[in-house]
C-alpha cells in the first residue's frame, strides 16, 4: 500500500484511519479521508465536525467554507458536516476559543506532530 492510501495510515489513537465523511468529498484527495499525502502543504489531516462559530471564524480569516463553489465542486459546509481541516486553522480556532469538535478515529496521526493527544481528546466527539 502506498503512503497516500488511507488503509495504510493510522489515526491519532493508533488504529486504521476511518473516513471523515461518507457524504462530502473532503480531504486533500477528495476521497473522504484525512490522508497525509505529499504535496498537501495545508496538512488537511484533522477531521472535525463543523460548528457555526468555527465556520464564521474561518470565513473571517479569509477561508469561506460556507459559500458553495460549484466550479470547484464544493457544496459549502453547514454545522454538523464533517470536514478535513488544516491543522494550522484548527489551532488558530482553538486559540480563539472556537475550535470545532474533533473526530479522533478519522484524524490522521500526523496531527500529533502539532497538537498533543490530550488537547485533541479534550475536543473529541463520539460519532
Description:
By secondary structure, the chain is an alpha+beta fold. The protein has one domain: Phenylalanyl-tRNA Synthetase, Chain B, domain 1. Helix content is 20%, strand content 9%. The chain has a two-stranded antiparallel sheet with strand order 1-2. The longest helix is centred in the last third of the chain and has 10 residues. InterPro entries: DUF2237. It comes from Halorhabdus tiamatea SARL4B. This is DUF2237 domain-containing protein.
Short structural description:
This protein is 20% helix and 9% strand. It is of the alpha+beta class. The chain has a single domain (6-122), classed as Phenylalanyl-tRNA Synthetase, Chain B, domain 1.
Outline the secondary-structure elements:
Layout: E1 44-49, H1 52-60, E2 82-86, H2 87-96, H3 117-122
Antiparallel strand pairs: 1-2
CATH topology: Phenylalanyl-tRNA Synthetase, Chain B, domain 1
How are strands sequenced across the largest beta sheet? Answer: 1-2
CATH architecture grouping: 2-Layer Sandwich
CATH homologous superfamily label: Protein of unknown function DUF2237
Give Rg in angstroms.
13 Å
Number of strands: 2
Q: What distance separates the N and C termini?
A: 27 Å
- The fraction of residues in strands falls at 5-15%
Secondary-structure element order, N to C: EHEHH
Shape: globular
The low-confidence runs, each spanning 5 or more residues with pLDDT under 50, are: none
Structural class: alpha+beta
Subunit arrangement of the protein: single chain
Separate helix tally:
3
Give the fraction of residues assigned to helices: 10-25%
For the sheet with most strands, the description reads: 2 strands, antiparallel
- Number of domain modules: 1
Calculate the mean pLDDT score and round it: 92
CATH C-level class is Alpha Beta
Amino acid at each position: 500500500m502506498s503512503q497516500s492510501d488511507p488503509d495504510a495510515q493510522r489515526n491519532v489513537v493508533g488504529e486504521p484511519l476511518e473516513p471523515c465523511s461518507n457524504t462530502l468529498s473532503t480531504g486533500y484527495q477528495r476521497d473522504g479521508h484525512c490522508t497525509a499525502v505529499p504535496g498537501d502543504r495545508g496538512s488537511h489531516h484533522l477531521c472535525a465536525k463543523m460548528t457555526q462559530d468555527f465556520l464564521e471564524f474561518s470565513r473571517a480569516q479569509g477561508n469561506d467554507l460556507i459559500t458553495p463553489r460549484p466550479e470547484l465542486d464544493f457544496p459549502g459546509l453547514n454545522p454538523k458536516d464533517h470536514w478535513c481541516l488544516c491543522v494550522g486553522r484548527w489551532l488558530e480556532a482553538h486559540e480563539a476559543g472556537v475550535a470545532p469538535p474533533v473526530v479522533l478515529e478519522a484524524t490522521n496521526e500526523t496531527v500529533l506532530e502539532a497538537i498533543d493527544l490530550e488537547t485533541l481528546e479534550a475536543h473529541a466527539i463520539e460519532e
